[in-house]
């Protein structure tokens, strides 16, 4: 896909994604996306996402953006945050092999900066189509950026976590990002909340 004008980029991504008939078609075209010039110039891989071999996940987890390890490997949540996510999913009875793992933004922002609003807007077309193709009935948004994508810009994570929210017919849960759980340590409140929220999600399935 050639780089369009910035104000047309989001619409072009959305149209391209909507035309993808299945996951592998979407992944193939997304891997050559250059809608965000800065990210396209600095990334190693477009991190499209992990899906179960069945193509039908029990749960879809959505984080913010790839980090360094994800950019190197082309897979989401494979660094320290990914190891903790896998552990807590397992403890909740949700093996990662049965879970789809996606990000709001598919390319690593330089220096792990927060994705800019236009980047989120452009990449949203991929994510919306991914959620449709996966038949995602239950979604867990990890961290504030992801929570805001689903629940709106005024979202306060501490006020909305711990219960499902109906978003376009999906049950959307929001909770802390594993990186926050790592930052506050194994006995910190974010890790306990993340573990409790994943158990609550598992109990709802
Ligand atoms: S972040 Fe998303 S929209 Fe931007 S270049 Fe990467 S895949 Fe395309």
From TrEMBL:
Taxonomic source organism: Modestobacter caceresii
Family classification: Belongs to the uracil-DNA glycosylase (UDG) superfamily. Type 4 (UDGa) family.
Protein name: Type-4 uracil-DNA glycosylase
Record-linked NCBIfam families: UDG_fam4 (TIGR00758)
CDD domains named in the record: UDG-F4_TTUDGA_SPO1dp_like
Any one Gene Ontology BP term: DNA repair
Record keywords, A-Z: 4Fe-4S, DNA damage, DNA repair, Hydrolase, Iron, Iron-sulfur, Metal-binding
Annotated ranges, domain Uracil-DNA glycosylase-like: 52-199
Database matches in SUPFAM superfamilies: Uracil-DNA glycosylase-like
GO molecular function terms listed in the Swiss-Prot or TrEMBL record: 4 iron, 4 sulfur cluster binding; deaminated base DNA N-glycosylase activity; metal ion binding
InterPro entries the UniProt entry points to: UDG_Type-4/5 (IPR051536), Ura-DNA_glyco_family4 (IPR005273), Uracil-DNA_glycosylase-like (IPR005122), Uracil-DNA_glycosylase-like_sf (IPR036895)
Domain of life: Bacteria
A Pfam family it matches: UDG
């Amino acid at each position: 896909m050639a780089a369009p004008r910035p104000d047309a980029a989001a619409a072009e991504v959305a149209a391209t994604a909507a035309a993808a008939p299945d996951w592998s078609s979407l992944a193939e075209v997304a891997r050559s996306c250059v809608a965000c010039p800065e990210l396209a110039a600095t990334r190693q891989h477009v991190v499209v996402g992990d899906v179960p071999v069945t193509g039908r996940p029990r749960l879809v987890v959505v984080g913010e953006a790839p980090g360094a390890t994800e950019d190197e490997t082309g897979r989401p949540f494979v660094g320290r945050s990914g190891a903790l996510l896998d552990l807590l999913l397992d403890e909740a009875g949700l093996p990662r092999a049965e879970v789809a793992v996606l990000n709001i933004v598919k390319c690593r922002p330089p220096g792990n900066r927060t994705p800019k609003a236009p980047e989120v807007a452009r990449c949203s077309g991929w994510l919306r189509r991914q959620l449709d193709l996966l038949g995602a009935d239950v979604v867990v948004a990890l961290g504030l950026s992801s929570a805001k994508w689903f629940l709106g810009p005024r979202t306060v994570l501490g006020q909305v976590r711990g219960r499902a929210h109906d978003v376009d017919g999906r049950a959307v849960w929001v909770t802390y990002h594993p990186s926050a759980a790592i930052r506050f340590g194994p006995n910190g409140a974010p890790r306990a909340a993340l573990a409790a929220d994943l158990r609550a999600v598992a109990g709802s399935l």
